[in-house]
Amino acid sequence: MQKPFSKRNKPTSTVSAGSEPPVSKTQQDISSQNNQDVVILDVPAVEVPELTEQEIRDRLLLERKVERAFFEAGKALSELRDRRLYRSTHRTFEEYCRDRFGHSRQKSNYLIAAADVYENLTTICCQNSGIDDLTTNSSQILPTSEGQVRPMTKLEPQEQWKVWQTAVEVAGGKVPSGRVVKDVIEQIMERTKVPNTYQIGEICQILAKDNPELRGKSGCWGIVSQVNDFSCTVRIWDGEYTVGLQHLKSFNYLPAQCEQMRVICDRISRLRENENLEEAVRAMLEYLGELKRPYLTVVEEKLLTLLESEYERIP
């Protein structure tokens, strides 16, 4: 006879009442991670000593040297060019710059012009501030690269100073970028815009005044080859230059006289293409480039014709 079915009792935990339930290994690991003691590191403060007066002077001096790097390069290139110190190894300054420094003559010209601007700014700054040495004065914001002053190379020194001070203000008292400087110049030009009435082919005289880029060109005549908003590109006896309107004065020659001067300019240009020109010949061409009349005298015509026939035989 079968025994009646009985209900099986569920297994009971061996944990007595009031004790904690068992914890799995995973829960133990998580609990262990969450309950780790926080380690506080006591790092002693390192006191940074203040700069001494001598160290402050040294820092300013070194900073000025960094800022003047492009200026020193421009002045050195200017002397190399003007004294023709490249002539023992290269025929032209352009070839010398390309081989020796790896950049074009245009880049050298940019550095030379920028050095002149930097020199103008520091000169005017010293005059306005009553100091002799900017290397010990930290309050003066000066350019640190050629690109920052390139837009100012066509301006007069006093105009350069005003533009730079305005650009520093726009930049919040810091060294302004070339873009900021250019924007300031455009704003000033827009307020004082003077219509350009020159025409292509017109003969003008160059008035160098205080423009460092036009040193040695004062009094030279040139032919307008391009008319810009605030300047003209002119051909003179030794090449082409972009000249501001304030540095040009028209000779008001008649069309026939302008054509005569164009012919003279072409003849001079062909002669200058010869790399074997002697110094006396260069001086003669420079003299012809400063004529204050639209024609050559009989003697000047004979001399120019003689030079042309002489150097046509020289390859």
Description:
This protein has 315 residues and is of the alpha+beta class. It folds into 2 domains: 55-191, no CATH class; 203-312, no CATH class. It contains 11 helices and 5 strands. It has a 5-stranded antiparallel sheet with strand order 4-3-2-1-5, covered by helices on one side. Helix 5 (105-129) packs across helix 7 (157-170). The longest helix is centred in the middle third of the chain and has 25 residues, at 105-129. The radius of gyration is 38 Å and the shape is elongated. The N and C termini lie far apart (140 Å). Mean pLDDT is 82; it is low at 1-8, 10-19 and 134-138.
Key terms for this structure?
alpha+beta, 5-stranded antiparallel sheet, elongated, disordered N terminus
In the predicted model, the low-confidence regions spanning at least 5 consecutive residues are: 1-8, 10-19, 134-138
Percentage of residues in DSSP E strands: 5-15%
Strand elements, count: 5
Mean pLDDT: 82
- With strands numbered from the N-terminus, the spatial order across the biggest sheet is 4-3-2-1-5
